[in-house]
Specification:
Elements: H1 2-15, H2 22-34, H3 53-64, H4 73-78, H5 82-93, H6 106-115, H7 120-123, H8 143-154, H9 163-170, H10 177-185
The structure holds heme C (2 copies).
Length: 189
């Protein structure tokens, strides 16, 4: 019996079937919203492929434990174990990050650049060079999604546990929030 299983596994490895493991199966349900390989094609859905592992893990575990607000994802994640969420974070972090470059006009770009001065230390000048593993990339992320997230950080009634990000988002002037989102969304790297 043992021998039969070994032979079957060897056969699967040989044909490549063994490459699709349980994490890839779970990821298929995510890709329905987040796109193939976590590269989103919908403006309110973030691309998640290639984001730092620690950031992905933080967000998903905070949803599972209700420490972070979400419209739909929290409920979605209750059914997963911590180990499954960690494995998903590792899986997505290893995929390439593919920016979706969205054009913005010069005036908005200038406004966005000025308003992101204080963001540079952590996110880099274009959002593409985060200073640590808990900080997500912003370059070529969907503008609509970025704006929605900034609105959440700015609103005390919305549970978003990262205090520093919250304080920084609140320092933006109301009229700069959309420009900041468009500025990052337009960056190729
Ligand atoms: C029904 C659509 C849908 C499905 C299915 C889905 N997501 Fe999401 N996901 C979203 C939306 C919308 C957001 C934006 C945040 C929010 O509004 O909840 C999001 C946000 C995220 C974020 C935050 C990204 C960031 O940059 O902070 C992560 C991580 C994530 N999802 C991972 C996953 C994983 C892993 C799965 C599969 C287990 C999954 N999602 C399944 C819709 C979905
Ligand atoms: C002290 C470092 C720091 C500074 C300064 C900072 N950020 Fe962040 N930013 C982070 C971290 C860490 C996260 C992830 C926080 C979380 O888990 O909610 C984040 C998340 C974000 C997100 C959500 C992205 C996503 O994929 O969900 C946006 C948008 C963002 N930052 C924009 C800005 C802007 C605009 C500024 C300046 C006004 C700024 N940040 C300043 C560290 C920083």
């Amino acid at each position: 019996m043992k021998l039969h299983i070994a032979v079957a596994l060897a056969g699967m490895a040989f044909t490549g079937i063994a490459l699709a493991g349980p994490t890839e199966d779970l990821a298929r349900t995510c890709n329905a919203c987040h796109g193939v390989n976590g590269v989103s094609v919908g403006p309110s859905m973030p691309s998640i492929g290639g984001l730092p592992e620690a950031h992905l893990k933080n967000v998903m575990l905070q949803w599972k434990t209700d420490e972070r607000y979400s419209a739909t994802m929290g409920r979605h994640f209750k059914g997963y174990t911590e180990a499954e969420l960690s494995a998903l974070a590792t899986y997505y972090s290893k995929l390439p990050y593919v920016p979706t470059v969205q054009k913005a006009d010069d005036k908005i770009m200038a406004k966005g650049k000025e308003a992101t001065d204080r963001c540079e230390t952590c996110h880099g000048a274009t959002g593409g060079e985060p200073d640590d593993a808990e900080t997500p990339k912003l370059n070529g992320q969907w503008a609509q999604y970025l704006e929605l997230e900034l609105m959440k950080y700015r609103n005390d009634a919305v549970k978003m546990p990262h205090k520093k990000m919250r304080n920084n988002a609140k320092k933006l002037a109301d009229e700069d929030v959309a420009a900041v989102a468009e500025f990052y969304a337009a960056q190729p790297k």
